[in-house]
Amino acid sequence: MTVQINPSILSADFARLADEVAQVRNADWLHVDVMDNHFVPNLTLGLPVVESLMKATDTPIDMHLMIEDPDRWAPAYAEAGAGSVTFHVEAATAPIKLARDLRAKGARASMALRPATPIEPYEDLLPELDMLLVMTVEPGFGGQSFLDVMLPKIRRTRQLIAKHGLQMWLQVDGGVSAKTIEMCAEAGADVFVAGSAVFDGTDPGAAVDRLRGLAAGAAARCAH
Ligand SMILES: O=C(CO)[C@@H](O)[C@H](O)COP(=O)(O)O
């Protein structure tokens, strides 16, 4: 199973963003968190910053929109060239239409679930998606502790993906580190967002390699 490691720039130094992302050229994607201070109690950045970031790196961009009204705002990120756009199902009015729109614009269509949101009511949406994001912290801030009570939900989501015969990425985000990544991979996740575990150390590139090695090893041991 291929695994992907996506450093979250939320833990990077925003004043030196181009230099920070240059340190993780070995990453699969750059994870970019957009927060609007409504859907989550924090405010980060928007499309102009993302457009500048795209000029500063060749690494594809993995957008995570923690915003209200993603139906209105998400397509613009796909149009700007983001390779992956994740919206929250709790905020979307018409998730199927939105997913189709994102795919039509050439992006990986992805839907996120807050920790308290179950996957089962959304099973029918899975064929419309390229990726599902199971949040492993309450969205809003980096550096929180991994919620291991999310492991059964990751497992269940992987089962439902298999039940529908789909090839879908299953992303986890929040508290992912060298201590927690193997249990996520064993549960069925294959895309790993890591902020503080990558950027808080002295060698972000080495941290990406280490996380990839741990995740790939755990995935190979259980072969989902
Ligand atoms: O979406 C979020 C937080 O809401 C994340 O992407 C965080 O940025 C992850 O940070 P760490 O938990 O890895 O430090």
TrEMBL record:
The active site is at D33, D173. Signal peptide: none annotated. The keyword Disulfide bond does not apply. Substrate binds at S8, H64, G140, F141, G142, G143, D173, G174, G175, G195, S196. It comes from Embleya scabrispora. One of its GO terms (molecular function) is metal ion binding. PANTHER family: RIBULOSE-5-PHOSPHATE-3-EPIMERASE. Keywords: Carbohydrate metabolism, Cobalt, Isomerase, Manganese, Metal-binding, Zinc. It is an enzyme of class 5 (isomerase). Belongs to the ribulose-phosphate 3-epimerase family. This is Ribulose-phosphate 3-epimerase. A divalent metal cation binds at H31, D33, H64, D173. One of its GO terms (cellular component) is cytoplasm.
